[in-house]
Write a structure and sequence with these properties.
Keywords: Hydrolase. Belongs to the dGTPase family. Type 2 subfamily. This is Deoxyguanosinetriphosphate triphosphohydrolase-like protein. The protein folds into 3 domains: 131 residues, Hypothetical protein af1432, CATH 1.10.3210; 121 residues, putative deoxyguanosinetriphosphate triphosphohydrolase fold (Orthogonal Bundle), CATH 1.10.3410; 66 residues, no CATH class. The protein is built from 19 helices and no strands. It has 389 residues and is mainly alpha-helical. Helix content is 62%, strand content 0%. The chain is globular.
Length: 389
């Protein structure tokens, strides 16, 4: 099917690539790709995207090759986002680009690393991985001769900034960028960005269930006490009696994902029918998101979140790893902020005065870009006198 045919099938409220608001730095088209296909391709080729392979979700990279990383999570989110966008007749390429880019700003060690950087950056405006993702694609990636960042389309940048909803209190960098290139922060994002956000929720909870069972932090039967998991568990057992344990886990998780996807499609179609939007701007101007779980599914999803919080994220083994990871991140920040001459030459040249706000922001960017593995190695180089710098 041609690109023109697919465009004709899009819903009236889908973002139209031929009506994109363009890029901060105008560029010639040059090929047959849509602007959002070009955005997706630029994201995939970044160093930040490659580094997601060695950035943790819950488990630090050396705890096992089987567990999810930020890279595999982003790929799973992109798959679900494309499926939802296709069902809802939205622009699949924009939804995919947002899904692939949404975690580019995550520091090493998952939420432990984010909490550590936020605590160190509190005097300088704090740290937020969503704002950092925008900073990665607008400033930190230095790949092109004509501009810093990736020069992504307005719609992709808007989606990165607002995929979790309107931004009433933007971070320092987001506010600064918005003054240069206004992203209409107080409105909702496009339906494609909302799809990417829901796809993130679906992927996150389900792969943590999978990883948690396989790491033996809890059993599948314990998780099946929850209504959403229990229904999928019983359906899997009924369909394939006597299957191997690993297969039962996979069959259960895929049924949960399917149930959540079907719920989002049904609830979104209900909200669209009530709103009757005629354009993507009508979606942005709506009083509430149009892409959402139903109230019963939202409640069941919250039950899963609470179960994971108690049985996985607060498990003693995970807590040990998180506390060690926080200390690594905090000490790296303190050492480099206090003595930026320990930074690599290209970073050192831009560091400013030791202990300054300018130096803090640069050190934060440096640490946020690290993988788990590099952060641990850098920690050893800076704290062990027996290891050459």
């Amino acid at each position: 099917m041609s690109a023109e045919s697919r465009a004709q099938e899009r819903a009236p409220w889908a973002v139209r690539p031929d009506a994109s608001r363009g890029r901060l730095h105008p560029e010639p088209g040059g090929d047959a790709r849509s602007p959002f296909q070009r955005d997706r391709d630029r994201i995939i080729h970044t160093g930040a995207f490659r580094r997601l392979q060695y950035k943790t979700q819950v488990f630090v990279f050396h705890e096992g090759d089987y567990f999810r990383t930020r890279l595999t999570h982003s790929i799973e989110v992109a798959q679900i986002a494309r499926a939802l966008a296709r069902r809802l007749r939205l622009d699949e390429d924009l939804a995919e680009a947002l899904a692939l880019a949404h975690d580019l700003g995550h520091p090493p060690f998952g939420h432990a690393g984010e909490e550590a950087l936020d605590s160190q950056m509190r005097p300088y405006g704090g740290f937020d991985h969503n704002a950092q993702s925008l900073k990665v694609v607008t400033a930190l990636e230095a790949r092109y001769a004509a501009f810093d960042g990736l020069n992504l389309s307005w719609e992709t940048l808007e989606g990165l900034a607002k995929h979790n909803g309107p931004v009433r209190r933007p971070s320092a960098y987001l506010a600064e960028y918005d003054r240069l290139h206004p992203l209409e922060l107080t409105s909702h994002a496009s339906a494609e960005a909302q799809v990417a956000a829901l796809a993130d929720d679906i992927a996150y909870n389900n792969h943590d269930l999978d990883d948690g069972v396989r790491a033996r932090l809890f059993t599948l039967e314990e998780a099946a006490a929850l209504p959403l998991i229990g229904e999928a568990y019983e359906a899997a057992r009924a369909a394939h009696a006597g299957m191997a344990r690993d297969r039962l886990v996979t069959e259960t998780v895929r049924r949960v994902i399917n149930a959540m996807v079907e719920d989002v499609v049904a609830e979104t179609e209900r909200r669209i029918a009530a709103l009757a939007p005629k354009s993507a701007d009508d979606i942005r101007a709506a009083a509430a998101p149009v892409v959402a779980f139903s109230a019963p599914m939202q409640a069941m999803n919250q039950d899963v979140r609470e179960f994971l919080f108690q049985r996985m994220y607060r498990h003693w083994r995970v807590n040990r790893a998180m506390q060690k990871s926080k200390r690594v991140s905090q000490l790296l920040f303190q050492l480099l902020h206090g003595e930026p001459r320990m930074l690599p030459p290209d970073w050192q040249a831009r560091a400013g005065e030791p202990g300054s706000a300018e130096c803090a922001r640069l050190v934060c960017d440096y640490i946020a870009g690290m993988t788990d593995r590099f952060a641990l190695e850098e920690h050893r180089r800076l704290t062990d006198p027996n290891i050459p710098g």
